[in-house]
Amino acid sequence: MLVVAGEQRPSDRIALARIHAQLFEPRATVWWRADRPSGFDFGTGAPESVSDAAAFISAQATQSEGEAILLDDGPPNPWEGVGPYGQGGNGMMGGTPYGRPMAMTTDDLRDGLALDAYSATFGPYLTQWPPGLIMETTLQGDVIQSVRIVEAPLAQDLLAATPHLELARLLRLLELPALADRLVRAALADPARAAAGLARAVRWTGLLAAIPSALARDESGGDVRSRTAGRLDALSAGRPADPAAPGDLAAMLIGLEWHEAALVLASFSIDELRGAIASPAVRMAKGAA
Predict the structure, then answer these.
(1) Strand locations in 59-205 (E)
(2) What is the DSSP letter of 80?
């Protein structure tokens, strides 16, 4: 079952259709507080309230008769008879055989060792990233070589801007889901209430020590570790976290390993990321050899 929550951009229609096509049959869709993009004339709408919606979705899981996929059920390129050796698609290394891009060696940022470079679009439904963020990225291994930001994250409600939920995003990346769930429940109960006990529980996990030092300094000199520490202080005091300015976000991600980039993105609020991406000057960065 696919549960679509919140506003969907028209430009995300194809990405949403791909997720829908990847569901096992019989597939079903539930729309919750969401407008259906063009062509998505199926599924059912869930009630507005969270508790009613949860009960509705549970009931729908056993009642679906299945939905047809929106995308063509076939390979993006012919499977044979196109390339010089009778293969499908165009080329192999660096080409797009069968419609799937293949890696090609190129210079490396760190030590000059030529490795396969692979370019792909990530987002907008990547669970590790802020919702709605789309980036065209070239990787060598798990090191980011170039970034073009295509779409900023989607705007979120005020609850998402609490230190509880901002910390919960980071905790899930570091495989601490139980503490993340506790923070979400605390935010739903009373987002303005100080939660010093929860902040201590997070610190005792060794979270700050697990974050590399001097990772992704912002315009005020802060890094991922100090921004996280600031959110823990805000959680203890029952106040919003101090703002941070990422600066050139795309350039900040160049040379980072994939898991480091995910931590960097989670260390800023959604509004801070949206503000940094608003300027066309920071939408693209490419590393030099």
Answers:
(1) 104-106, 115-122, 134-140, 143-151
(2) B
